[in-house]
């Protein structure tokens, strides 16, 4: 009974583990993802060339020199073998050299900042991670979406990535690499879908309370025309929904499990404003300090006028 239960648990967990592959990095649908999967497999197999013999030999030696073994040849003078030395040094050196070359080449090839070549002009999408949702701005099309990313299959997409506040990581496992989104700076990623489909996207970096609901569908349309139709539909159906700088402030407020939203118009330069936000805030702070300095000098006048409501800590500083 216990054994049957154990078998059932083992079977269930195997099924679970295998179903984990579906839709993940081991089931790639884009060129970058396919190349990365091959890299994972090659690196794993190369390392198994060492790991498997070590495991086999460990078990073999334990069995060969077991306590009850009586007729094994005893060789106390044996201490060195050039053949064994050659094997244990040469094999790892060769593996490290091969891994090194593969790493060097693939690091250049799969550089997330490098545009995908030979597939024509790329589409640009500006990605902003908010607490806790994803904003996608299409600067060339002048539209934006929340928690839904649409692009044509077989067209390279350039993602410009930033964050409103908390650090997140933009990740569509079936298409390839994840890249961090960080406030006050822009990171880049180039991906392509080799076939149409809907792929899961999420943040690969924990970012707080609403993190689990911070998911989106990445939809690759079969054709460019299909994508163009989606764009014109968004424009037509959401023309009243305009993502202005002011609306963005509202959108940026923390919220969880956000439904998909569409914006038929977006203010020019919104992404740039988000990236530069902290630089501007810094400028404002200087201004504030400046005003406060003036305020200090003018405090007597202000006090005399008695019309200035100031926080207590501030007035204490002045006394
Ligand atoms: Cu950074």
Give structural notes.
With 319 residues, the protein is of the alpha+beta class. Among the domains are: 24-63 and 86-110, no CATH class; 123-273, Cupredoxins -  blue copper proteins (Immunoglobulin-like, Sandwich), CATH 2.60.40. The chain is 45% helix and 20% strand. It contains 8 helices and 13 strands. It has helices spanning 2-19, 31-64, 82-109, 224-237, 245-251, 270-297, 299-305, 312-318; strands at 123-130, 133-138, 143-146, 148-152, 157-163, 168-171, 179-181, 187-191, 197-203, 215-221, 242-243, 261-263, 265-266. The strands form 3 sheets. Strands 8-5-1-2-3-12 form a 6-stranded mixed β-sheet. It has a 5-stranded mixed β-sheet with strand order 4-10-9-6-7. α2 (31-64) packs antiparallel against α3 (82-109). Mean pLDDT is 85; it is low at 285-319. Residues 182, 185 line the site of copper (II) ion.
């Amino acid at each position: 009974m216990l054994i049957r239960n154990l078998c059932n648990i083992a079977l269930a967990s195997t099924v679970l583990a295998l179903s984990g592959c579906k839709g993940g990095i081991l089931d790639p649908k884009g060129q970058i993802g396919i190349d990365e999967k091959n890299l994972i497999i090659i690196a794993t197999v190369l390392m198994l060339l060492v790991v498997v013999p070590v495991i086999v030999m460990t078990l073999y030696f334990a069995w060969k020199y077991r306590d009850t073994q009586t007729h094994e040849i005893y060789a106390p003078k044996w201490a060195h073998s050039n053949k064994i030395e050659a094997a244990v040094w040469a094999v790892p050196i060769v593996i490290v050299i091969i891994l090194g070359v593969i790493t060097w080449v693939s690091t250049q090839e799969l550089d997330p900042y490098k545009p995908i070549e030979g597939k024509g002009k790329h589409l640009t999408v500006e990605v902003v991670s908010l607490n806790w949702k994803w904003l996608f701005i299409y600067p060339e099309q002048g539209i934006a979406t929340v928690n839904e990313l649409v692009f044509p299959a077989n067209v390279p997409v350039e993602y410009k990535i930033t964050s409103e506040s908390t650090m997140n990581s933009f990740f569509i496992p079936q298409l390839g690499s994840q890249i961090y989104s960080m406030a006050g700076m822009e990171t880049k990623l180039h991906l392509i879908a080799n076939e149409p489909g809907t792929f899961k996207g999420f943040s690969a970096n924990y970012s707080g309370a609403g993190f689990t609901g911070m998911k989106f569908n990445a939809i690759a349309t079969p054709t460019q025309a299909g994508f163009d139709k989606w764009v014109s539909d968004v424009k037509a159906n959401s023309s009243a929904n305009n993502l202005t700088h002011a609306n963005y402030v509202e959108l940026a407020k923390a919220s969880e499990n956000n439904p998909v939203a569409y914006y038929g118009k977006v203010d020019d330069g919104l992404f740039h404003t988000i990236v530069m936000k902290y630089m501007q805030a810094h400028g404002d702070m200087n201004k504030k300090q400046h005003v406060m300095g003036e305020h200090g000098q003018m405090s007597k006048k202000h006090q005399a006028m008695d019309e200035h409501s100031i926080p207590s800590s501030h007035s204490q500083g002045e006394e």
